[in-house]
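We treat protein structure as text, and this decision shapes the records that our systems exchange. This encoding replaces a full spatial description with a residue-level series of whole-number codes. Below, we set out a record of this kind in full and without editing:
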Amino acid sequence: MNREQQLCRRIKSLTWFFIFGLAISGATAIPLRLEVDRLIHFLGFEEWGSQPSAPILIEWLFKVRDALNDTQAQHPFLFYGTDWLAFGHFVIALVFIGALRDPIRNRWLFDFGLIACTLVIPFALIFGGLRGIPIWWRLIDCSFGVFGFIPLWFCRKWTIELETKKN
């Protein structure tokens, strides 16, 4: 396999990885109540309940669970916002099919993705702070930007290399 074929294969693999990550991330924005309940169960935290003496992670998960249940009972239409969040992830994932089809012509998608991943960090830190999200949870949110940035950076780098080889 020559270098151009190797670069194309790497670009496609990481682009698929990024698309898959966006799609999974979007899909998790829909069944929030179920996910939190299952996470509490999976981690074996049921016996703690909403005790104020619980470790911070347990306390946070129960606070989120209770808020989701209250929202479902009193204002279920608010979940429509997370449905649209999921839709946004799905649409952005679909856009990256252009990078699969022709990474050189659509290299701008990698630039777009890198910018978006970079902006996740200040967005999570600023708005998470305004909404009372604990710093450790905001750092988890920031990690999505970091983990998205890495494959896109390689895709952009390899696409530039591929472009120079073809010219």
